[in-house]
């Protein structure tokens, strides 16, 4: 049997194969310029036309490719006329639209016959999200049939998908604009954000805090001198009458020796004047003077002895010694009345918080604050505010802050000297004020509102 010659493919099958081939060519395009060449030139194998124009939406919009031209010149009269036409078509038509001179936007139809055939078809190019990437304009002398429009619509869908692959990544501003584009989801999100901004929240401030003694006994230096020895360690319990520290006695011992010699001399002079007073009248007057001198020297000696007795400071009541390191005080010169340490009762403690001036909020006596110790992240202690300082003072870290004193609630007895962070409560404010309070404050400082 002789082999049968191959039968020609039906026209519908041939058109389908051409469509598939064009879609593949679009996917294999190396860049946007190559894809534009395929769209305006090779589409002719599927649908006949005389002219084709590819309008790109990149930047301000421009004619990116024209059929029959290897490259476009934006200053050419033809492109000068096409640019406003394509820009107007993109704004007016989001779906395929047949055109002629009478339906051209604006007054562009007056010069239609000079640049394009009688009939044209505008096809927008969109990506998967529906965003317009540009458009294709096909023109010829006869109108485009419905079948041809349907085929071109399917083809431009593939062109738009391929074109989106060459689009640069959207900037954060473009992403925000796209997210805020009117729609049901965006409206719901905006309404939810507006409601969230108005939700009342408690205005709070975090401030450094420590557990301080309440009603402590202040131990001061009794004399001007140098601390010779510290008998207790920091945080050591001491009993009433126990020695705390002592001052150097070298200077006082010298003063006492001088006072003792002066007293002995005055006593000897008094004895001599007393003997003369028995036989001479002048001796009686001299005896009275010697008696006064002796009394003065005796007082000086007694005062020096009392000072020697006071060089060792003892605890007047039981408590815990609160002060810095021992080496910080040994050998340090102190003045009379200078604070050396505190005697505190471990059962009587309070919370001392330092609210920075930059974070100042309105606090009320009786409000409850919470201490979060640094050493115990799982524990917290509640305290009630008893006083807020009127004026700010400089802390040890060099920060101006208001002192806030609070008394721990019943059953709360944290360790003396415990440090942490205190959460200070203020009034109720909208969430938007809570979130933007610090930025607004900085803006006012910089702009001088």
TrEMBL record:
Superkingdom to which the source organism belongs: Bacteria
Species of the source: Chitiniphilus eburneus
Keyword Disulfide bond attributed: no
Gene3D superfamilies for the chain: 2.40.50.100, Helix hairpin bin
Primary localisation category: other
Cellular compartment(s): Cell envelope
Record's GO cellular component terms: cell envelope
Record keywords: Coiled coil
The protein, known as: HlyD family efflux transporter periplasmic adaptor subunit
Lineage of producing organism: Bacteria, Pseudomonadati, Pseudomonadota, Betaproteobacteria, Neisseriales
